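Worked problem 6 (solution included).
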Amino acid sequence: MRNAFLVGTAVAVALAGSLYGATARAEAPTATASVSALALPEPTGKHPVGMTNVHVEDEGRADPWVPVEDRELMISLWYPATKPSNTRAPYMTPAESETYGASTGLGLPSDLFATVTTRATLDAPPVKVRGGLPLVVLSPGFGMPRATLSGLAEDLASRGYAVAGIGHNHEAHGITFPDGHTTRCVACENTDFPKVGAVRAQDVSFVLDELTGEHPAWKGGAVIDKDRIAMIGHSAGGFSTVPAMLRDHRIKAAVNMDGNFRFPNDSRLNRPMLMLGKPSHAPGGQDPTWDETWSELTGWKRWLSVDRTEHLSFTDLAPLAKQLGSPLQELDGDRADAITRAYVAAFVDTHLRGRTAPLLDGPSARFPEVRFHRP
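Solution. The predicted structure is:
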């Protein structure tokens, strides 16, 4: 088990593409598990899950990384469905899988991520709920495709949320557009993290406009309750939550999953924030930005760390790497995934639905790995 964890650690560094910016490379033995066996964990809610992809273009806004282009994004939408369709939703396109896999330098099979079994079906009919569905916006880690948060998205959708995963163009190793072209991470070549946060804040506002406006970009957009919106991000997506909230008051609450707060920590924020990270993200730890940000949060807030986890433990790569026989952390990958799902669901249930969630009140016997910090 210890040897497997060491292999997984090398895989984790490489799969991140960039843990906090610089492109990483690592050598590790090729995983021996059957690629065909890779599958996301089952959702825990009662609804079947539908999924669709939407392409949007912010006309007249130059792309910050490739200025000769207008800014365009791909959005994956997950939602509770009345019944499944006959087509399983793909995890990544073959081109996305090849581009992301190549970025790790591990010699992974080019179709590895295209073969992952999801739990959603394409274009299934969405449920219609009185009052509409609360919306959760997901922003992935820097260099990482939006698909790497699919398991969390499916789980939230099964619990009755609409979920929008944003593909921030030229910030991921692999985004395929409807015309078939696939872009790479141009921003990874010369990283400017404050700029990344500012760009993503703009992206999120644009996506909210497109999904909740008079003519929604998603044909099922009428089911979204525009007054109940939260944002959840991993790594760069996590630190982008604060600039996004400061820019757009439609975002009622946010979760940062293990992202350094890469922006000036001089603006107070009085909306709910959950900071959820690996053990080193504790008060007085290696990352002072968490302490700095904590002092600027004046509303509801929680600071949690999860024992025996690593940076990618809050993404799909935790359970998938376990299936490949190369765990990313000492904690079991499925256990890490279950913890992330449970605490994120408790947070959005509390702040978008007004439900009581004792899980957020303090340590739980169900999840002894989770530590509460109150500096």
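Discussion: Residues 333-353 form the longest helix (21 residues).
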